[in-house]
């Protein structure tokens, strides 16, 4: 899965800049610091692959990574950046909306949620956007190693409750730790099973 080379292809700032929709793609969304780069790196087995998405200037682009004979992996950098000027936020939201609603080959959006925090108000922003698009989304809990196993059930309950309001949500919640390699194979298998 994701046999080398996995490469950064391009950062897209407008729908006109999208690469050809010639293969399926999955995308990863999450607020900054949720562990998205670490997860993409763990999935692909490439250290620092996703660092490009976190550099200034790339944070308002939709970043495409190619995999050998596999789907595009698409990184949606940190949503909900409250500090950005209003026109910048508006432009980003418009691009996001257009992408999520209008990309025929987009098969699933993985919404990353920090295991320590659960679904927060800032996450609801992307969830409601996803409700209005035609794509299934699935929650991936990150940094599972930072919470106790005894707290897993309460976390799953909180996330399930939050997802109940969202018809586009996939019911399976995936618990991961990029640091410990937890859930990475599961996530790979889910991606490999999409067509
Ligand atoms: P991004 O901003 O969403 O791309 O987040 P990063 O992948 O850069 O991670 C943010 C911080 O969380 C970094 O300090 C990572 O080392 C840490 N982090 C990411 N994943 C994990 C994990 O699975 N376990 C732990 N303990 N820390 C993690």
TrEMBL record:
Identify which cofactors the protein needs according to its UniProt entry. Answer: Mg(2+)
All copies of the EngB-type G domain together span 22-195
Q: Which CDD domains match?
A: YihA_EngB
Q: Tell me which stretches of the chain form a coiled coil.
A: none
Q: Which InterPro entries match?
A: G_ENGB_dom (IPR030393), GTP-bd (IPR006073), GTP-bd_ribosome_bio_YsxC (IPR019987), P-loop_NTPase (IPR027417)
Q: Which UniProt keywords apply?
A: Cell cycle, Cell division, GTP-binding, Magnesium, Metal-binding, Nucleotide-binding, Septation
Gene3D superfamilies xrefs: P-loop containing nucleotide triphosphate hydrolases (3.40.50.300)
Give the family this protein belongs to, as stated in its UniProt record.
Belongs to the TRAFAC class TrmE-Era-EngA-EngB-Septin-like GTPase superfamily. EngB GTPase family.
State its role. Answer: Necessary for normal cell division and for the maintenance of normal septation.
Name of this chain's protein: Probable GTP-binding protein EngB
**Per the UniProt entry, what species is this protein from, by scientific name?**
Thioclava litoralis
